[in-house]
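Work package 3, deliverable 3.1, input record:
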Amino acid sequence: MKTLKINCNNQSFILHPFGVAFWEDKEMLLIADVHLGKVTHFRKHGSAVPQASIYHNFEQLSVITDYFNPKTICFLGDLFHSYVNNEWILFKDWVKKFNREIVLISGNHDVIATSMYEEINVIVKKEWLINGFLLTHYPESRNDLFNFSGHIHPGIRLQGLGKQSLKVSCFLRKKHQMIFPAFGNFTGKFIIKPDPTDQVYVNTNEEVIEIELNSARMNLKE
Amino acid sequence: MIKRKDLENIAHHWFEQQDWKPFPFQRQTWTAFLQGKNGLLNAPTGSGKTYALWIPIVLEYLKRNPDYATKKHKGLIAIWVTPLRALSVEIKQATERFVEDLNIPLTVGIRSGDTSQKERAAQKRAMPNLLITTPESLQLLLASKGYDKVFNKLVSVVVDEWHELVGNKRGVQMTLALSRLKTISPKLRIWGISATIGNLDEAREILLGIDKKVIDNSVLIRAKINKKIDVLSILPKTIDRFPWRGHLGLHLLDDIIPILKKSKTTLIFTNTRSQCEIWFQNILDRYPEFAGNIAMHHGSISKETRLWVESSIRDENLKVVVCTSSLDLGVDFAPVETIIQIGGPKGVSRFIQRAGRSGHQPGQTSVIHFLPTHAIELIEASALRKAVKTNVVEDRVPHLNSFDVLVQYLVTLAVSDGFFPDEIFPEVKSTFCFQSITREQFQWILNFITLGGQSLQAYDEYKRVEIEADGRFKVNSRKVAMRHRLQIGTIVSDAVLLVKFLKGGYIGSIEESFVSKLKPGDIFTFAGKQLELFSIRNMQVLVKKSKQKTSKIPSWMGGRMSFSSEMSDLLREELYLANMEESKKSKELEILEPIFTRQKRESIIPNNNQFLIETFKTREGFHAVFYPFEGRFVHEAMGSLIAYRASLLQPITFTIAFNDYGFELLSDQPIDMQAILDNNLFTNDHLRSDLEKSINASEMAKRKFRDIAVISGLVFTGFPSKLVKSKHLQSSAQLLFGVFEDYEPDNLLYQQAYRETFEHQLQEGRLQLAIERINNQTVIWKNCEKPTPFSFPIITDRLRAKLSSEKLADRIKRMTIQLEKL
């Protein structure tokens, strides 16, 4: 696993191939768009998505918390895909085991009652203003705050010689903003067209790679 | 009891009154039907096939109900299934004409997606005696409660245009429905009507199922209407400015004008709907005098417009109709004198069928003009002429064990009255397409629809079909039932949106994939109109008229068909003639001479014992082009096979393009052709396993999985005209494919994607023969300076497969982002 360290507003963050970022000073893990319960939601409505896949998100969560050992996890919205179903039980168990601070910035998919989260000590916020950073679900721009958000599930289309092209998920960084890729394994991506002043960090299974936006077309190797 | 002869005399008498003489095939069909036989009637469109089967159905009714004149009998006696609902009006008129003339109180009704809610309700109270319907609407009837009582007096089911169904999943759906109807109404007579295809005998078995008693009691009747077809090529005056590739053919537009002017009515067939729109627009732009005499007909245009065009053709009010395969079928257009085919039809039977749309009067010759869209297609033209002469037609390969269709069918039965597996399994197994299904596989399907493909597990909330105390499989949730009913029509295609004017007024429907590329304010051409996109709301595209000239034209997928092996043989032989002396060449080849000269300057024209490979470098990368001349599908398979084998030699990424002549491997790195030749990559050894791996690597199966996921209800697409709150249930089949790959690779539906790729896309058998042939040829490898005329149509094709043996990160590092369009 190759991570990538970046700087935003003089704070350093480690971007991880899973599509999450670790805020070193705060020891906080930032994760967007997990969409827990989506598989079960589908199954409940007669679409037989493999049931075994529901454990995947929880396994990934455990791997990533073991790796960074954060004090806090902040979910940037869309933690659950829809109404409560049995995956809530798995989530409750996971929260208990993790036993540290969990904050959810609620997103458009988060329709589960705040009281249910509070019962298991998950803090629900509309937004979180912390040390000059504004954590939200929808991308926002406000004053001089640096915004972290999700919602979009950004991905980009890369092109190469030989008529090659690829679509990969990514972090999209603008001047005062960074939009996170979706964490969930059963979520799609939305292909964005970055501006020349943006920065794009692609996350593959093994690596986070910064893509040069202004790179000239490469010449053929002989 | 009335004797058969007397019954048939009623028909003969009616024919005399119309001043007609029954064809032998009509008389044979009447007799066979009245003898209680099943069968397949091979007759072309516009030959009187409706009367071949409708008449004996009526006669049988007279026989069974001698009191018909005084007593009205209720209920369905026959179902007429047609794959295109546009044809149903035509059939209704023909069938009504006969019973009205004879004063027989039989009623005829239509049930299709176009049927109003009111009429459906009326039909529910009292079915017409003859129901004209589509395979999908028939399934929907099976999804309604008490369906057995609707069908239990059924005498016959006729499946029209069976050749259109036999090679696809709608055909599978049809035969499953028939297996049910046979049980409900054991004396059912099943008949199909088919145009000429290569495997007519098999088509009969597919229709009737594998029960020997049924097959033995069946006939294949061929209408021997030998029609003379003249194939004329529209040749460019010089080849100099004729494009090497392209698909529009507009440069020959001026040359068809004299043909249009001379003929009473001309149908211009194009291969895609976008091409249809473009041709229509261009004829009008350049020859405005045609305004009012020209129309367009394709599947996305509203039903009203299509019906208007059809009746205008009949009434001789139109001189020119630009159309797509939407006019391939049915409807008899007597005034049509001339057909023009633009671009390769990709199938001889389709070409013959199109030719047959003209010259309907007995004894008249059908004339079809072929307009090549690029230089190499001229070779196709002269091969086509030979194919028509020798009547080389393709087989339609049936879909075996399509578990997605079976899942849909079983849920359909569960939605209506429920079913008992022990009763249904033998029925399913009696169909041709599921004859090899095992009890285990069937059990898996049952488990799939009840438990979602799992054994009972913790946290699972799967809900679709329930097993009741008496063992009946039943859907009890109204929501599941509703969603399933909406899903039944989905065997056909992509999600479509309705196009409407802001002020109201429906124009047609358009694929979501096109609309999603548009922004409000964009201008696009649709149904011959310039439209500005206003907004997309509730599955509706709202537009207003625009005067702006430049616009985008929707591109529709589809129509990428492949040559049959016979046609490929003809094509290859034609090409070998290019090396021969003048006298053996057709007009088309003569015109191509400058191109052949150029090809020979840069490379060679292979003869029958040579296999040509060309390599060259361009700005785009390193190209290797191979020319087996075996048809698109074989090239797709061979392309991925060779790419896969080559990718084992070094980490490399290819994009693969293919057409009917050959295939290309393109890479950003040099391709070591010597290594490919030295390592004997064209071997038949390990063919199967290498192919399997190449399918994995090139994502071919992923594409096939889309339909499977939709048909089996894994993905819910919603329904174009109805608003369903399903946002949280949307997911792409691609995503799902990945989840199956990781968590349930033994899932039968997932595996089916691979099987279909093998059986229908790759055609392993043909590939094997092609490789054998290549192995007996001498490989000629030409390292060329620049792209050759032969390579041009292939290397400029943008629709490509991909295959890579490199690490994703390594590839990414060599790539760039495409910023806003330059």
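The radius of gyration of chain B is 28 Å.
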